[in-house]
Amino acid sequence: MPAGPDHATLGDMSAALAVAARALLDLALPVACAGCGEPATTLCSACGAALRGAPRVAWPDPAPPDLPTPYAVAPYADVVRALIVAHKERGARPLAAPLGAALACSVDAAVAALAGGAGPAGRPVALVPMPSRRAALRARGHDPTLVMARRAARALRRRGRQVLVCPVLRLRPGVGDQAGLDAGARRANLAGAVLLVRAGPRLLQGATVLLVDDVITTGSSLAAAAATLRASGADVPAAAVVAATQRHVGAPALCGPARWD
């Protein structure tokens, strides 16, 4: 008798059906802003403005020792939180463009700060997206962080930056969901869990590496990823995200017209 489908295949089929169901629901319902819910395009101009704050250094308190200097453009609250959750968990893929533009501003501020100090000195900047668990990627039907990184890189190239996207990190099987864990539990969950793909050192050779993600909370994930990359010889001076939880503080950086508190 032919073998039945394995659990992985069934999981992929379920994820595909969930994505298709979300797409049909989007067609059936009126378009509403993902930030405020008012009838509009996917993102109204007022909510879009929340993603255009001045990026600033966003250290968590306390900060993990391996954490590269993190930059964010907005607090992870209210409209910004709604937009990130809609893109990541509810498949609102058109939000990749404004979220990618916000991420590009964080990256630009980080690169500008490096240029004012030691600086990349003409080296390319490699954006390394934070990896997600395979189960989460199957459920979402896409990799939201990778998509944002590619959008950000496209915007930065238009500004003359030499930028490439290198998805060279993965998580070992069995890593638990970080949601709801405190800083200590997050560090324990990620101990030895962020792995570099075999081609990683070659792809990153000669580049200044910036880790990118949608949100920074305790900084444990970014610190674990930075430690893995540095163990391979990579230079990882900074990280760039869209938003930071309210415990983060710092002075405004060099990009964007507005301030956020």
Uncertain residue segments: 23-30, 254-261
Whole-number count of domains? 1
Q: How many strands, which pairing sense, and closed or not: the largest β-sheet? A: 7 strands, mixed
The gyration radius over C-alpha positions equals 19 Å
Order of helices and strands: HHEEEHHEHHEEHEHEHE
At CATH level 2, the architecture is 3-Layer(aba) Sandwich
Structural class by helix and strand composition = alpha/beta
CATH class: Alpha Beta
Q: What is the number of helices?
A: 9
Q: What does this molecule look like?
A:
The protein is α/β, with parallel strands linked by helices and 261 residues long. It has a single domain (8-244), classed as Rossmann fold, CATH 3.40.50. Helix content is 41%, strand content 16%. It contains nine helices and nine strands. The chain has helices at 7-28, 45-48, 78-89, 96-116, 134-140, 144-158, 183-190, 200-204, 220-231, and strands at residues 56-57, 69-72, 74-75, 125-129, 163-165, 169-171, 194-196, 208-216, 235-244. The strands form two sheets. Strands 1, 2, 3, 4, 5, 8 and 9 form a seven-stranded mixed beta sheet that branches. A two-stranded antiparallel sheet has the order 6-7. Helix 1 runs parallel beside helix 5 (134-140) and helix 4 (96-116) packs across helix 6 (144-158). The longest helix has 22 residues, at 7-28. It is globular, with a radius of gyration of 19 Å. Residues 23-30 and 254-261 have low confidence and may be disordered.
